[in-house]
Design brief:
- Keywords: Immunoglobulin domain, Membrane, Signal, Transmembrane, Transmembrane helix.
- It is a single chain.
- A hairpin with a 5-residue loop joins β8 and β9.
- The chain folds into 4 domains: 98 residues, Immunoglobulins (Immunoglobulin-like); 72 residues, Immunoglobulin-like; 117 residues, Immunoglobulin-like (Sandwich), CATH 2.60.40; 83 residues, Immunoglobulins (Immunoglobulin-like, Sandwich).
- The longest helix is centred in the last third of the chain and has 27 residues.
- With 466 residues, the protein is mainly beta.
- It has 4 helices and 31 strands.
Length: 466
């Protein structure tokens, strides 16, 4: 009876195998796969691969003895966890159909490991390089699963992706296999080494505001990723604007990064701009506490690789400036012309707004769009103080500039007459004193000493020859 039951079980297992019943495991290159054998008890248990020919991979016995194949393709990849076979760091040569069995017995468990996806080349990548992602499985008879990719933005793509990468391709790509009610998702990471996008609008500053010129690694890109792609040089360049006031209009190299100690080195042209010393966070920005007129121009952040590829980002800097004519120190009654500009006409969509001192004689400007030039025919003392010009885009303030005017009181005609009269009297008194002192000088034949000489040059007591 016992032998009959065993025979029936063997026939059922054999029928399932012949009918094509086996478990499917999806994996990608580099994964660790565990194959479980449905064996309640055994003396010896064998794991085999059904390739062109059936090949023994490993065996284990109930006493703890074990043995593994010595082929190079399987070297250091096989181990046992109980009676389960573990394949570590699986490669393309290790995919196939596996089964376990006891000596002279039927196949107990049949498992087919299908390669789910592959990526060529391995990341990190540079923008413009080619990326191939394959997500496919072998058909199981007439049964064909549905396969597709989800990109980092969760948009559906074909099972085979072949494209030139951009920074938007950085992130998790998901291979989705749908087999009836079963659904398998496996992810692969793609990293594209790139710089963050440059600001679309210029950076606005003034002598009253800080200057920050941004440049950084793209999100999810680390310094280790950059070094893995053999970065050769990272440096800043500056092309001055014609209105910057600089004598030289040539492109200047401001800073370069020493790759040995990850510290910035200046070239003598840095104009007190300071790089952010925070390379681990990928920040390559330049900054200064206050803007200057000569900061106008184009700044380019460059990252050059040994492959010849160059990544760069250009940032335009505009400096808002208030010019006072004739000067900032004035006398009440003088004309004043204040001009607020970027060194060139304002672009469309931008306007200025003036904020004069509280006691200013400037008429109230009802319009929100103030003129760039303010003209006051005769300034008063109330016009002295801080004048602020704000550069606006809609209601958003881009930057502002401040100038301080010093206004002195104007002298009236009577005050001028009084001052001139007092000065004339003082001069007459000095002249009179001088004449009197000259007349009282001691003559050589005079019997006594003049008052002036006695006072200025007293002589010691005694007798003197006349």
């Amino acid at each position: 009876m016992k032998n009959l039951i065993q025979s029936v079980l063997i026939l059922i297992a054999l029928f399932k195998f012949m009918a094509g019943h086996f478990e499917v495991v999806y994996a990608q290159v580099g994964d660790t796969v565990t194959l479980k054998c449905q064996a309640d008890s055994y003396r010896y248990l064998y794991w085999k691969i059904d390739d062109t020919v059936i090949k023994d991979l490993a065996w284990i016995n109930d006493l703890g003895g074990k043995h593994f194949i010595t082929d190079e393709a399987w070297s250091n990849k096989l181990s046992f966890s109980g009676d389960s076979l573990v394949i570590t760091n699986i490669q393309e040569a290790n995919f196939g159909k596996f089964f376990c069995q006891m000596p002279s017995g039927p196949r107990l468990t049949s498992i087919k490991i299908l390669q789910l996806m592959s990526m060529t080349p391995r990341s990190p990548l540079l923008p413009g390089e080619s990326l191939t992602l394959s997500c496919s499985v072998n058909t199981l008879g007439n049964k064909k699963p549905q396969v597709h990719w989800l990109n980092p933005q969760d948009k559906k793509e074909n099972s085979l992706v072949n494209k030139r990468v951009t920074s938007q391709d950085t992130g998790k790509w998901t291979c989705v296999v749908t087999d009836g009610k079963n659904k398998k998702e496996t992810r692969v990471s793609v990293t594209v080494v790139d710089l963050s996008p440059a600001p679309s609008d210029p950076k606005y500053t003034s002598k009253s505001k800080t200057l920050n010129i941004p440049c950084s690694f793209a999100p999810h890109v680390s310094w280790e990723h950059v070094k893995a792609r053999d970065v050769q040089e990272i440096y800043w360049q500056f092309s001055p604007d014609p209105s910057s006031g600089l004598v030289s209009k040539d492109t200047q190299k401001l800073y370069f990064l020493n790759l040995n100690d990850s510290l910035w080195k200046n070239t003598g042209q840095h104009r007190e701009l300071r790089p952010v010393q925070n390379l681990k966070n990928g920040d390559l920005s330049l900054s200064r506490k206050q803007g200057r007129e000569e900061d106008r121009g184009n700044y380019v952040c460059n990252m050059k690789f040994k492959s010849g590829a160059i990544l760069n980002r250009a940032v335009r800097v505009e400096v808002l400036q208030i010019i006072s004519s004739p000067q900032t120190d004035l006398v009440s009654g003088q004309p004043l012309n204040l001009s607020c500009s970027l060194g060139h006409p304002l672009p469309s969509g931008l306007h200025v707004k003036w904020s004069p001192p509280p006691g200013s004689s400037l008429p109230a400007l009802k319009s929100e769009h103030h003129p760039a030039d303010v003209i006051i025919p005769e300034v008063g003392t109330g016009d002295g103080g801080k004048w602020e010009c704000s550069l606006l885009q809609g209601k958003n303030q881009l930057t502002s500039a401040v100038i301080t005017l010093k206004i002195e009181h104007r002298l009236s005609v009577w005050m001028l007459v009084i001052i001139c009269s007092a000065a004339a009297i003082v001069i007459l008194i000095v002249i009179l004193v001088f004449i009197l002192c000259r007349r009282r000088k001691v003559q050589l034949n005079h019997p006594y000493i003049s008052f002036c000489e006695t006072t200025l040059n007293p002589k010691p007591k005694g007798f003197y020859r006349t």
